[in-house]
Amino acid sequence: MAVRSAGGVGRWVKRGVLLLLALLVLALLAAWFFLRGSLAQLDGRRTAAGLTATVTIARDAQGVPTISGSDRLDVAYATGFVHGQDRFFQMDLLRRVAAGELSELFGPKALVVDRPNRLHRFRARAEQAVAAMAPADRALLERYAAGANEGLNALGTRPFEYGLIGLSPRAWTPADSLLVIWAMYFDLQGRLEARELARGWLRDNSSAEQLAFLLPESTAWDTPLDGVAPPPPAPLPERAPGWWGKSAAKNGDEVAAIDFVDSVGSNNWALAGSRNGGGGAIVADDMHLGIKLPNTWYRAVLAIPDAAGGTRRLVGVTLPGAPLIVVGSNGRVAWGFTNSYGDYLDLIAAEEDAAKPGQVKLAGGDWEKLVVRQETILVKGAAAEPLTVRESSAGPLRQAGGRTYAVHWTAHAPGAVNVNMRKLEAANNLDEALAIAATMGIPAQNFVGGDDKGNIGWTIAGLLPRRAAPGLASTFPLAADTVGVGWSGWLAPQNYPVVRNPASGQLHTANSRQLLGPGAELLGDGGLDLGARSQQVSASLKALGAQADERAVYGVMLDDRALFMAGWRERALAALATPGASSDPKRAELVRLLKTGWSGHASVDSTAYRITRGFMWSLYELLYGAANADLHKLDEEARISTATARWPAVLARLLDEQPPGWLPSQYASWTALQLAALDRTAAELAPDGKPLSAATWGARNTAGIAHPIAGAVPALRQWLSVPPDQLPGDSNMPRVAGRTFGQSERLTVSPGREEQGIFNMPGGQSGHPLSPFFLAGHEDWVKGRPTPLLPGPAQYLLTLTK
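That's the Penicillin amidase sequence above. Prediction below.
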């Protein structure tokens, strides 16, 4: 037998290595061309079925399109086309979140989202809503869907996300555009059930006097639009409830202050013409949302025909999946939204009886037969999961804490979703815009608008429930035998609360109490914010005087002064100043940093701000820890901070008044409690001998914004996320900023002066990491640089012809 020479073996090894390298190169090239193939078409001409005339899509250097057409339906088609090319996967996620269909893409791990969401059967509701639509509205969604599907099909390869998960996209339908709006119901009102459960637990485990103190209706921080002063606080009960101060945390547990980011946020405001030299109103809006890549919003300019035979320019942001400008200006009127946090959901205890199978009794009514529906959740890589939905006349049933509740949510009612927002395109003045707002089928929002004549106004955009009786009773679960409370049907638009042209020349909302006088009972409290942010905005706008311009109004969005947290720093220093308290080296270091490192801002280099914030949240954990542990058993989202955003005012009052009956027995004094909270904070911020001075706010508040695929394929995260920017700002100040939550856009505009408008957003136009538009504008958002609202000169032109 012949023996192969060493040289021959070497040659075969080299050939093998070269072959493997060649295969690797081919694989990389194939992957590269696959990824490149799913980039949007920016230039050229395309024939599009169904167009009545030519439509042009001109993009600037950042990829922002100006879509121009002589027919509104043609512009809707082209809007769908660019959305389908740049953001189809995002659109798909939105409709699937609303419909409870994420598991079809991501497998069993997504069932935790799909199970509760499918309970609401929004896909079936969307199909019914489309069928009942006026022909003109249905045609708008049909043409948008046709454009989205053509944009998707025109890509050289399927969007890269589908290649990574090994699936193909499903075509877009008109019903899907309504599901996108229902996805915003989850985003903006998704904690209402948990809130009611948390408040119900507090009611069951506290006296009436304790409950009134623990759940104040308002605080001194509130700055309502009607100028009504907050009422005096409730009397402080002699004793705390039994669960008070029994922390469930153990040594080494992570303090809520370290990881918690307040997810209540959004600001908007308007200055009347009298405040800017007699010109048009100035409107500003920065909606605070969870931030991912791509960003929630898609910038666009739509040039559409107007009633006079000319062209009207709409500028602002769209929501991928829908053909409308959501926030922006039409040249005559500008508008913006913040979440209104009203009371839009009731949990109604359902009485069941084994002798009456398939029936329930609700709110003092008769026994009624349930409608039972079988849903099927498709699961990638696993068997489909059946889900039985039991529906009562008040809504679907859910279980919590061993009880059954009917979920009576405005999102279920006919009319909860529509496309009446399109009517804002033709609004010629503020009054027309306010009237349109009351007819919109969206999650109820604070609508602040202004027109080119200088008028400003506020109302609620979205349908408001008509309540049988006002008051706090509806913010707790309703007993099965309750009569005369809850809601039924919609409030008539003429009965909506409205504020027009206040004497101050300014209006603002920031998720806190809008009204404390007449009209407040129409909204209720579905999680209203503390009011500190609102108060700071109001004072900042007042300080602008009578000659404000767009840049000055935009600057209020960047205000990161820690006015709310300053009082907590003073309390911490007062506790540490107690004789002997600072003999411990760590406490002495706390004193030094709180004194020398305080800039008065939530700045990235501030250790003092982080310590102060940690101190407040450590107290929260020590006093509410046991309650939070019990609440978590009811619902994952249920906690004291869900039940009330005003808990810091409750704790501040206790620390300032120091009532003996509220001091937990394990502490010798209120100072001892505060020192325990500071010790806890120091231990968490400087573990294992690390220096406390390194625990800056920026080290904690570092952007973690990423594409959803980064979670499914961690190896790609570096290409699918933003740089680890350290972000100034926090909750309870205008510049809300967290790791993955904050200002999803910043827009300031005076209608008719769009050329002077200002805009930022945290991500770019494209959802594709190889696109030059993927992170375009991100650095401007981080730095707060005022950049133009209108697109720059056209760099690309795509023409769609019939």
